[in-house]
Write a structure and sequence with these properties.
disordered N terminus; globular; 242 residues
């Protein structure tokens, strides 16, 4: 979930290059053999390139049954994001990223609240600008409310102004998807050579790896739990970090 934003990484002049393939991941063969939906441990800076992602329509088919009663409205709302914040991603790539993040953050539960009441909604936003998180009951949530809820996670607000933290679009303007996801999740990129490293010990070390796997087509049905991720990938669960 989106942890408390303590600090924000700046925009360094040199951005770490994304690796060329998920095949660089360690233990990939072992994990596939175990049948956990093909999950591959994405260590260090390993993250799939956009041309290795499933298409948006494919990701919808894979995830729709796991996105709750408002799945159709969520998909329609994501399709309203027709402009990518970076030339490195097409509009469809950007939509795919948003969908994968929704699956990771909330499983489509529109009224989900975590982190002691700090993280809200489909993208578990924690807003800095004084704007209140959009909240709605899944039984009555409208498509317009869902769009505004997603805007808060994408742009840092529900309006039309320039993107600001902690919106994912803010980070994508100067970073590739891997480091952008780390900064969205925890507000900083403490180790440019390892996207699982965090400053906040209560953060989700596997976050970037999880979203990368979702983009690659790993289904919610067989997605591994935190115990498996710790044993097979070495990602420490947030509630067990010292």
């Amino acid at each position: 979930m989106l942890s408390s934003i303590v600090e924000r990484a700046g925009s360094p002049a040199q951005v770490a290059a994304e690796p060329t393939s998920t095949s660089e991941s360690t233990k990939g063969g072992d994990l596939n053999a175990l049948g956990h939906g093909g999950y591959i441990c994405l260590h260090k800076t390993t993250f799939p390139l956009p041309d290795q992602w499933k298409s948006f329509d494919e990701l919808v088919k894979i995830n729709q049954d796991g996105l709750g009663p408002k799945a159709s409205d969520i998909v329609k709302a994501i399709k309203t994001f027709t402009t990518s914040p970076t030339q490195a991603l097409t509009a469809e790539d950007f939509q795919s990223l948003i969908l994968a993040m929704v699956a990771q953050e909330s499983n489509g539960i529109t009224n989900l609240i975590n982190d002691g009441g700090l993280s809200h909604g489909l993208l578990q936003v924690q807003l800095r600008n004084g704007e209140k998180p959009v909240a709605c009951d899944p039984n009555s949530c409208t498509e317009d409310e869902i769009v505004k809820m997603l805007q808060q996670g994408v742009y840092g607000h529900s309006g039309t102004a320039a993107a600001e933290p902690p919106g994912i679009a803010y980070y994508l303007r100067s970073e590739s998807p891997g480091p952008s996801l780390r900064m969205y999740n925890t507000g900083s990129l403490p180790d440019r050579g390892d996207y699982s490293k965090t400053l906040n010990l209560k953060s989700t070390q596997s976050y970037v790896s999880d979203v990368g796997n979702r983009l690659s087509g790993v289904s919610w049905k067989g997605f591994p739990n935190k115990t498996w991720l710790q044993q097979m990938c070495g990602f420490q669960p947030a509630d067990q970090q010292q």
